[in-house]
Amino acid sequence: MMSVYLSGEIHTDWREQIIDGAEALGIHFNAPVTDHDASDDCGVAILGGEDSKFWHDHKGAKINAIRTRKGIEEADVVVVRFGEKYKQWNAAFDAGYAAALGKSIIVLSPPEHQHALKEVHAAALAVAETPAQVVEILTYVVEGTLPK
Predict the structure, then answer these.
(1) H or E element that contains 119
(2) Homologous superfamily (CATH) for 3-31+74-143
(3) Rounded to whole angstroms, what are the CA distances from 85 to 71, 77, 94?
(4) pLDDT of residue 85
(5) 63: which residues sit within 8 A by CB, 6+ positions away?
(6) Long-range contacts of 8-12 (CB under 8 A, 24+ apart)
(7) pTM score > 0.85 for this model?
(8) Domain ranges of the chain
C-alpha cells in the first residue's frame, strides 16, 4: 500500500479533497495535527506551562516534529500545500526534509507563488495547482491510467 503524507496549509479542505478523490486507490494518508489550537498548545498541555511564548511554541514545535518526521520518513510520496492566506514556513521545511530523504514530492500551490517557491518547485517531481490534479497524479502512479 502506498503511503502519502499531506503537509502544509491547514485552513482549507484540500486534504479531504485529495483523500476523498483517491479513496478507491487504497492509499494510506497521514498528516500533521490540523487542529490549530491543539498543534500550538500540545507542548504545554503535555509537558507543562511556560511563561514565555517562545518556550511555549518551542515545546509544541518539538512534539509536532516527532509526528511530522515519522510521517515524512514513512511516506512514499509527500504532498506539500502552500496556501494563499498564510505563509507556511513549516511546509517549506517539510519539503526540504522530504527532499533530503529522497522522497517523491508533489507541491500544491497557486500560480502567483511560482517565484517565491522556485527552489521548492525545483526539488519537486510535480507541481500542481489543484487537489484534483494531485488525485490525478496519484491515480497515474498507482494505476498507470490517465484522467478521463
Answers:
(1) helix 118-123
(2) Response regulator (3.40.50.2300)
(3) 25, 25, 19
(4) 73
(5) 42, 43, 46, 47
(6) 8/79, 8/80, 8/81, 8/82, 8/83, 8/88, 8/90, 8/91, 8/94, 8/108, 9/81, 9/82, 9/83, 9/85, 9/86, 9/88, 9/91, 10/34, 10/36, 10/39, 11/83, 11/85, 11/86, 12/83
(7) yes
(8) 3-31+74-143
Give the residue from 67, 71, 106, 76 showing the smallest Cα distance to 1: 76
- 29 — phi, psi (to 5°)? -105, 145
Cell of 128: 500542481
pLDDT class for 86, splitting at 50, 70, 90?
low
